[in-house]
Design goal:
The chain is of the alpha/beta class. The protein folds into two domains: about 200 residues, Enolpyruvate transferase domain (UDP-n-acetylglucosamine1-carboxyvinyl-transferase, Chain), CATH 3.65.10; about 220 residues, UDP-n-acetylglucosamine1-carboxyvinyl-transferase, Chain, CATH 3.65.10. The protein has a four-stranded mixed sheet, covered by helices on one side. It has a four-stranded mixed sheet with strand order 4-5-3-14, with helices on one face.
């Protein structure tokens, strides 16, 4: 159990570790590249290590070198075992979804397994799309959910319709595998597209490794066949989602935090838009080439569509407790399918410390300015809940977070860095 120490003011500099989202995608592109790649500033956390270990099980040679990782790409060729293998992916939804398409490329037989929570996270649309492109994937328990079995010999490719309102990771998964299908892939999106910046992130990593996918207003994506990812040295930039907790620390204490290894002018990480929300709430924000400066001010509530940056919703909810007026967060229904039901569980835990929270089907309403008190907080095995509730603990004495090591999923050094705020 981790007790958070309140602090009246902060003035500090923190260097952010590599992006989890970019690390996943770069690992996959490097594994499929025809030759050896070096991934610099590799983020070692629970989720990325699931992806790394899964690729090793698929026959890719990956070796750590200090803070870097060297990947001997297979060029998309089938290597390794002939027997059926189980790939265990814990509760890393990103690993599970992105790797489903890669598993279908491998020409081997796999079982994709995970934790009980993983078995509550839907994959129907992705599995249906892959089967429509020539895969042979079946459900091993409940229809539409993990675990699944993969027996694909060749992933042919072709045209497929895919709903965009459940998870952008379905699209990213198909895009990453697209160059290695025999016919290429054309994805036609039905309905709205959630978390569009994560698709941009995928396209950006693919381009960095030599594959340029095209799209028409995010409604039609095309990946041509016949090309392979080009091996290269690739540096992984800092994680903007992880930076949000430290920006939140500045916001609620009225202090100043400088986050280094964040590139606000060039990054395609969608959570960089959170800086605009903080400015609207009353913070002062400075942006330069490789860092961000956030200084807290008098906070006021906002109404905002967080569909493009869902991972920072718990951070915003924690900050909103200390804002004047109400904060309305909308268009994040897909948060119900994350490590926890991130809408329901965020509301529940903020109420535990005295917050007045309304739960919407697709978001939250937080009424700021109420009297809050300490309590033992359950993050529901969700790393983002644990870290966002630490933000509230900087102002509210007596907040203790159970299962504090759940942060290892994305940010193993979080508590060590958080302690520096109060040094």
């Amino acid at each position: 159990m981790k007790e958070i120490k309140p602090i009246s003011n902060i003035n500090t500099i923190v260097r952010m570790p590599g992006s989890k989202s970019i690390t996943h995608r770069a690992l996959i592109a490097a594994a499929l590249a025809d030759g050896e790649s070096l991934l610099r500033s590799f983020l070692r956390c629970e989720d990325t290590l699931y992806t790394l270990d899964a690729l090793r099980e698929m026959g890719v040679r990956i070796e750590p070198e200090g803070d870097d990782v060297r990947v001997a790409g297979t060029g998309g060729r089938s290597t390794g075992q002939s027997e059926k293998k189980e790939i265990f992916l814990g509760n890393s939804g990103t690993s599970y979804r992105l790797l489903l398409s890669i598993g279908a490329l491998a020409g081997k037989e796999f079982t994709f397994a995970g934790t009980p929570r993983m078995y509550e996270r839907p994959v129907r649309d992705l599995v249906s799309a892959l089967n429509g492109l020539g895969a042979d994937i079946s459900y091993l328990d409940r229809e539409g959910y993990p675990p699944v079995g993969i027996k694909t010999k060749v992933l042919k490719g072709g045209k497929v319709d895919l709903a965009g309102n459940i998870s952008s990771q379905y699209i990213s998964s198909l895009l990453l595998a697209g160059p290695y299908t025999t016919e290429g892939i054309e994805i036609r999106i039905t309905g709205g597209l959630v978390s569009r910046p994560y698709v941009d992130l995928t396209l950006d990593v693919m381009k960095s490794f030599g594959i340029e996918a095209t799209h028409e207003d995010y409604q039609r994506f095309v990946v041509a066949p016949g090309k392979k990812y080009i091996p290269r040295a690739f540096t992984i930039e800092g994680d903007v989602s992880s930076a949000s907790y430290f920006w939140g620390a500045a916001a609620v204490t009225g202090g100043t935090v400088i986050t280094e290894n964040i590139y606000p002018m060039t990054t395609v990480q969608g959570d960089i838009g959170f800086l605009d929300v903080l400015e609207e709430m009353g913070c002062s924000v400075g942006r330069s080439g490789d860092n961000v400066i956030v200084k807290g001010g008098g906070l006021r509530g906002v109404e905002t569509d967080m569909g493009s940056m869902p991972d920072v919703v718990p951070t915003l909810a924690a900050i909103a407790l200390f804002a004047e007026g109400r904060t309305v967060i909308r268009n994040v229904h897909h948060l119900r399918y994350k490590e926890s039901d991130r809408i329901k569980d965020t509301a529940q835990e903020l109420r535990r410390i005295g917050g007045r929270i309304e739960e919407l089907e697709d978001g939250l309403v937080i009424h700021g300015g109420d009297i809050l008190s300490g309590a033992d907080i359950d993050p529901h095995k969700d790393h983002r809940l644990a870290m966002s509730l630490a933000v509230a603990g900087l102002r509210v004495p007596g907040i203790r977070i159970t299962d504090e090591r759940c942060v290892d999923k994305s940010f193993p050094s979080f508590w060590e860095m958080w302690e520096r705020l109060t040094d």
